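Entry:
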Amino acid sequence: MSNKVGYFLLSLVWLVQPAQKSGFHILLPASVYRTSCLSGNPSVPAKLSYTKSLRFNIYSFTIAASDSGRTRNLQVKAYRGALLLTNFTMLVDGPVMGAEVADLDSNRFPELYVYTTTDGSGSFGRVYAWQFLPERKADILLPAWQTPEVDGYMGHDSLWIEQSRLFRKFPVYRAGDANVAPSGGYRLTRYQLKPSKNGFALIAEP
């Protein structure tokens, strides 16, 4: 039996096994890629680089992202108890670096925040976010996120949630600074969640 035929049969044996009771994950040997709708086609293998499960009261979320390409496929599943509220896939810019669930506007409904960073030396941070209301999923917008009003911004964002705010921290570069040696200190910006048209927006505090 050739190596190719043996590998194909091994893949079939693993793929027909039932999923383990561990949320979204299906356990496969390291040499076999997971088959996932992240690729856009259930028959096309897609390797996952980021998976995470989160909980907020009776709500739970699973996040999974592919591991290659300038843009990545992100899949989000949201549940209220055992009820699947939504299951969607979208393209995001760069690899997923983290995810958090919070209630920044204190309305008792959860928001999901997914953080990505662009490939390359800049590592520009991005946030993709949604609030899960009883009747719908509402987008959370980030006005002017990519162009902070700070001279010397060159990416390298750190993002996290603390005390009902989303925090964004980045180094400030002066003329002549190398990419790895910023000399202008750091800038910290706090964002509040506010209603905006049919959704919500993260607004920078002055």
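The CA atoms of residues 177 and 183 lie 7 Å apart.
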